[in-house]
From TrEMBL:
Homodimer. InterPro entries: 4pyrrol_synth_GluAld_NH2Trfase, Aminotrans_3, Aminotrans_3_PPA_site, PyrdxlP-dep_Trfase, PyrdxlP-dep_Trfase_major, PyrdxlP-dep_Trfase_small. Transmembrane segments: none annotated. It is found in: Cytoplasm. Its EC number is 5.4.3.8. This is Glutamate-1-semialdehyde 2,1-aminomutase. PROSITE patterns: AA_TRANSFER_CLASS_3. The keyword Nucleotide-binding does not apply. It comes from Alloalcanivorax gelatiniphagus.
């Protein structure tokens, strides 16, 4: 498969764009090779600049749950564009969006639209601190919540040590109030809450971790978060930027039956446009400006074109049986991969939740924590990734990112993926 145009573009891109990309994981650093440049997408397929076709399991990192270039979404966007790109003033579409989101996610009484997942989590943290009058926050190792300074904290610092920044440019003082615990470890949580529960403003968690591959919560973990937050008056934030509308119509909170105080959303809610949102209990949300004193704003927030794409996407998720179908597709993929791997003697562990999945090259049969994810064979994943790419399958170019199935992937697409995987396993 020739990718000459991508190679030429990548050479050009590196002159004026740091690393040639506008978001680091696109650079293929973890898997090797040249990033593929795409110019068109339709349904489950991406088409690169050489017009090679790929079955896509990245879905623009989650938003494209309906498949690419969905007709109703495209038409809604074009209609909105015809009326003007941005007014910087309230619109009916924002009211429709707020009504629909609060109906789909019942823990949300109110919602504020923003422009990215990062903005949503940044604001949720500020709001939780403003609401509680406390500074400390708890996050979990391997969970990513966007590039918010206070959340860019080096993993592995252990239960009671304070955070150190994981990126130059983040002052130590900014992460001093961030405590990092092990994901799926209710014991660690107990220790921290007992020691300093009165200082904790918020716990933020990916209810299914999708930024260390795909790690579902173990039995009782989310329940423990809820119970400690209740006991000590801390705000429980579910970062559902990835899992929202992805693992169930009402997100991970609906799937696992645990209700957060605040929820952050992104990706699917924008249908492919730059959108994020945060929302939750009225008592907390009322503290946000202009109702309350916690400041937050955005020139383009609630943008009419973005609202049109998001609404047209969310409305299609109401179809009876949508999530059952999506999950069946995801199961066909992960079960198929596991079966073939077993047949050819490749150590592969797969996970899934709704329309998201994880692939681990390991002999382990259970992965619940960041250190276990890190112990998997990332180099082997890189070889597999490139072998799949050469066979027309586009996986996330990193061993630490969840994969996504869309409703547009049909049996033939998944069968073709499994055929490609059989050949790719042989190349390992
Ligand atoms: N939270 C989670 C759980 C995410 O997966 C991401 C992005 N992958 C973010 C926050 C940040 O979202 P954005 O890239 O839109 O800023």
């Amino acid at each position: 498969m020739s990718r000459t145009h991508s190679e030429q573009l990548f050479r050009r891109a590196q002159k004026h764009i740091p690393g040639g990309v506008n978001s680091p994981v696109r650079a293929f650093k973890g898997v090797g090779g040249t990033p593929v440049f795409f110019h068109r997408a339709e349904g489950p397929y991406l088409y690169d600049e050489d017009d090679n076709r790929y079955v896509d399991y990245v879905g623009s990192w989650g938003p494209m749950i309906l498949g690419h270039n969905n007709e109703a979404v495209r038409e809604a966007v074009l209609r909105a564009v015809a009326d003007g790109l941005s007014f910087g003033a309230p619109t009916a579409a924002e009211v429709d969006m707020a009504d629909l989101v609060c109906e789909m996610v019942p823990s949300m009484d109110m919602v504020r639209m923003v422009n990215s997942g990062t903005e949503a989590t940044m604001t949720a943290i500020r709001l939780a601190r403003g609401y509680t009058g406390r500074d400390k926050i708890i996050k979990f190792e391997g969970c990513y919540h966007g590039h918010v300074d206070s959340l860019l904290v080096k993993a592995g610092s252990g239960a009671l040590t304070l955070g150190t920044p994981s990126s130059p440019g983040v002052p130590k003082a900014v992460t001093d109030d961030t405590l990092t615990l092990n994901y799926n470890d209710a014991g660690g949580l107990e220790e921290v809450f007992k020691a300093r529960g009165e200082e904790i403003a918020a716990v933020i968690v990916e209810p299914v971790a999708g930024n260390m591959n795909c790690v579902p919560p173990t039995q009782g973990f989310l329940e423990a978060l809820r119970s400690y937050c209740d006991q000590y008056g801390a705000v429980l934030i579910f970062d559902e930027v990835m899992t929202g509308f992805r693992v169930a119509r009402g997100g991970a909170q609906a799937l696992y039956g645990v209700t957060p105080d605040l929820t952050t959303l992104g990706k699917i809610i924008g249908g492919g446009m730059p959108v994020g949102a945060l929302g939750g209990k009225k008592a907390v949300m009322e503290h946000l400006s202009p109702l309350g004193p916690v400041y937050q704003a955005g020139t383009l927030s609630g943008n009419p074109v973005a609202m049109a794409a998001g609404l047209a996407t969310l409305r299609q998720l109401q179809r009876e049986g949508f999530y059952e179908e999506l999950e069946a597709k995801t199961e066909k993929l992960t079960e198929g991969l596991s079966t073939i791997a077993r047949e050819v003697g490749v150590g592969l562990h797969t996970t899934r939740a709704g329309g998201m999945f994880g692939l681990y090259f390991t002999e382990q049969t259970r992965i619940t924590r960041f250190d276990e994810v890190m112990a998997c064979d990332a180099a082997r994943f890189g070889t597999f990734f490139n072998a799949m790419l050469d066979r027309g399958v586009y996986l996330a170019p990193s061993a630490f990112e969840a994969g996504f199935v869309s409703i547009a992937h049909d049996d033939a697409d998944i069968d073709a993926t499994l055929d490609a995987a059989r050949a790719a396993f042989a190349a390992l």
